[in-house]
């Protein structure tokens, strides 16, 4: 009878695993807080209480109240519904657009590639945030238009990343084998090339989530994001700005929330890149 | 002369990019849902007045004709007229440019030396406590919302302690330095971690390379190897990243300028976006893009001059 190898239980964690677990835990915690926001605090995030304006943090109001007497704690939790969604869903439009362009561009090569790469050159010439502000400013404020702007501006990094990988992958034996078996390029790209780029995409997307979250909160701060009274961290900081001298808590806690979520994304990304060796 | 030849080729490659930039900035206004004429005249303007102005501005002509007249105007330095300020956009941009330039220079002057020192400490103490501390601080710095940090610092150092002014641009060089200190620090807090992580990785990568082992086996001192070989070879990737980051800084100074009421391009941009001042948005976007192209080109030329292996 063979003895099972017990050494594996004592083996040290692979470097990066701890970061992934801690980072994912932070993100998951925020997802749960966002989903369960109404349970944690029964109050309506927009309920105005003019008798309790600008109250400092206390047992009744953990994070104090704002200039309309709204509970900052409740609003931070409800805002997570927008911001967590923004960070996670916001990377999808540029990822989908960029990965498709990079895949086709790298695999097809030739004129298609040349045209796509000129498009990349043109897009990177515009500072990211400037173009996002310009597009949102012209389309009008709101989350949807922010996602549109992200898709139009943010695809470049994903396209470059995927294209660079595809250029290496398309000369591998398994691609040659698929070609020899007569599979059409679309199948080869989707079934054989794309899956091999997913780990790099994942690492980059988790880093990008921080950028998307912080840029989105900046837009909210500038009044170009989700419109009031819907709570959103950036917009809440803007709300609190006139009162920051006397009532620091209105601005402080939403920023802390954004920071902790961003921290979760970066930790995950760092861990993933160590584990996947990228 | 091969360098000049390569430079010429690089400049030729810029032509399609510049055309693309002009098309994008032209389309920004064309595709906008609002009618710029209506904005100019207000809602109560008569149909005849609208039609007349439309003709005057050339909006009744085909899109391609309008594009060419836009390009010829831009080439003559005419970026249109601000609806809100009733001034030519190009003179507005020149008025608002100095504080932004000063701020970017300030940020680079703070960030680059700090990054180099911290990265060296981090790489040389790899996986010991100074490294862990610096890396943790770097992660924290990357996740702080810059505008929030700016706001909190303006309250603490500006209002509470009264060390620094919290708004404006000040007078004279020292005045600028004093007024823009908090904005520059807030922006650096975000920039330093990005550069630091990059330089640290480059330093560690270089210090594991074969020529370092060879130098060690010759009996050269660690400090000598680090200064003469590792550090020099790690500069290039970080220089490239700095180029990208300056381009990024031009954009991200927008929010910081708003918080500290610095009369810079960011303030102009946001007020234009909020006021739907289309020609200012268009002109600024074009200006930002051309500035980015120039920065990128400069960095590429510098890289090629530093390292002959780099092709322009």
TrEMBL record, chain A:
Keywords: Cell membrane, Membrane, Peptide transport, Protein transport, Transmembrane, Transmembrane helix, Transport. The keyword Protein transport applies. Its main location: membrane. It comes from the Bacteria. Residues 80-269 form the ABC transmembrane type-1 domain. The chain crosses the membrane at residues 20-40, 84-107, 201-227, 247-268. It holds the Pfam family BPD_transp_1. The keyword Transmembrane applies. One of its GO terms (biological process) is transmembrane transport. InterPro entries: BP-dependent_transpt_permease (IPR050366), MetI-like (IPR000515), MetI-like_sf (IPR035906). Gene3D superfamilies: MetI-like. Belongs to the binding-protein-dependent transport system permease family. This is Nickel ABC transporter permease. It comes from Ensifer adhaerens (Sinorhizobium morelense).
TrEMBL record, chain B:
The chain crosses the membrane at residues 12-31, 101-121, 133-157, 177-196, 230-252, 258-274, 286-306. Keywords: Cell membrane, Membrane, Transmembrane, Transmembrane helix, Transport. Belongs to the binding-protein-dependent transport system permease family. The keyword Transport applies. It is a multi-pass membrane protein. CDD domains: TM_PBP2. GO terms for biological process: transmembrane transport. The keyword Membrane applies. Pfam families: BPD_transp_1 (PF00528), BPD_transp_1_N (PF19300). It comes from Ensifer adhaerens (Sinorhizobium morelense). This is ABC transporter permease. One of its GO terms (cellular component) is plasma membrane. It is found in: Cell membrane. Residues 97-303 form the ABC transmembrane type-1 domain. The lineage of its organism: Bacteria, Pseudomonadati, Pseudomonadota, Alphaproteobacteria, Hyphomicrobiales.
């Amino acid at each position: 009878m063979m003895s099972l190898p017990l050494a594996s239980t004592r083996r040290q964690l692979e470097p990066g695993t701890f970061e992934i677990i801690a980072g994912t835990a932070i993100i998951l915690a925020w997802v749960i807080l966002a989903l369960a926001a109404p349970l944690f605090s029964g109050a309506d995030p927009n309920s105005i209480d003019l008798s309790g304006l600008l109250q400092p943090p206390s047992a009744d109001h953990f994070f104090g109240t704002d200039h309309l007497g709204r509970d900052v704690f409740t609003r931070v939790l409800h805002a997570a519904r927008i911001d967590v969604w923004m960070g996670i869903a916001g990377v999808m439009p540029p990822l989908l657009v960029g990965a498709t362009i990079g895949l086709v561009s790298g695999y097809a090569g030739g004129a298609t590639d040349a045209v796509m790469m000129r498009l990349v050159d043109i897009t990177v010439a515009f500072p990211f945030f400037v173009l996002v502000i310009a597009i949102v400013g012209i389309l009008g404020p709101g989350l949807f238009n922010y996602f549109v702007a992200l898709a139009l501006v943010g695809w470049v990094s994903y396209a470059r990343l995927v294209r660079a990988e595809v250029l290496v992958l398309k000369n591998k034996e398994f691609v040659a084998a698929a070609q020899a078996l007569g599979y059409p390029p679309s199948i080869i790209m989707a079934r054989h090339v794309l899956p091999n780029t997913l780990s790099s995409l994942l690492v980059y997307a988790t880093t990008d989530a921080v950028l998307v979250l912080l840029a989105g909160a900046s837009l909210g701060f500038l009044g170009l994001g989700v419109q009031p009274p819907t709570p959103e961290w950036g917009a809440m900081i803007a709300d609190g700005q006139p009162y920051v001298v006397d009532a620091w808590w209105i601005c402080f806690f939403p920023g802390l929330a954004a920071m902790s979520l961003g921290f979760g994304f970066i930790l995950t990304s760092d861990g993933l890149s160590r584990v996947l060796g990228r | 002369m091969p360098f000049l030849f390569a430079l010429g080729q690089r400049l030729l490659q810029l032509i399609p990019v510049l055309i693309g930039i002009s098309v994008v900035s032209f389309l920004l206004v064309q595709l906008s849902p609002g009618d710029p004429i209506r904005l100019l005249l207000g809602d109560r303007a008569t149909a005849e007045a609208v039609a007349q102005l439309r003709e005057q501005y050339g909006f009744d002509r085909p899109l391609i004709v309008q594009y060419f007249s836009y390009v010829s105007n831009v080439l003559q330095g005419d970026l249109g007229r601000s609806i809100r300020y009733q001034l030519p956009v190009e003179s507005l941009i020149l008025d608002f440019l100095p504080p932004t330039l000063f701020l970017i220079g300030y940020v680079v002057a703070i960030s680059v030396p700090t990054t180099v020192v911290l990265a060296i400490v981090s790489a040389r103490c790899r996986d010991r406590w100074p490294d862990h501390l610096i890396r943790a601080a770097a992660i924290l710095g990357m996740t702080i919302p810059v505008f929030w940090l700016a706001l909190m610092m303006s309250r603490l150092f500006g209002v509470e302690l009264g060390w620094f002014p919290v708004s404006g641009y000040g007078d004279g060089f020292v005045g600028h330095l004093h007024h823009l200190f908090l904005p520059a620090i807030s922006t650096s807090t975000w920039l330093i971690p990005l550069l630091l992580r990059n330089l640290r990785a480059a330093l560690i990568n270089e210090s594991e390379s074969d020529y370092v082992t060879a130098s060690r086996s010759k009996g050269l001192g660690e400090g000598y190897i680090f200064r003469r070989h590792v550090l020099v070879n790690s500069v290039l990737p970080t220089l490239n990243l700095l180029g990208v980051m300056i381009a990024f800084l031009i954009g991200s100074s927008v929010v910081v300028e708003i918080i500290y009421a610095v009369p810079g391009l960011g303030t102009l941009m946001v007020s234009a976006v909020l006021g739907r001042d289309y020609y200012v948005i268009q002109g600024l976007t074009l200006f930002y893009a051309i500035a980015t192209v120039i920065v990128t080109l400069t960095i590429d030329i510098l890289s090629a001059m530093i390292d002959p292996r780099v092709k322009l």
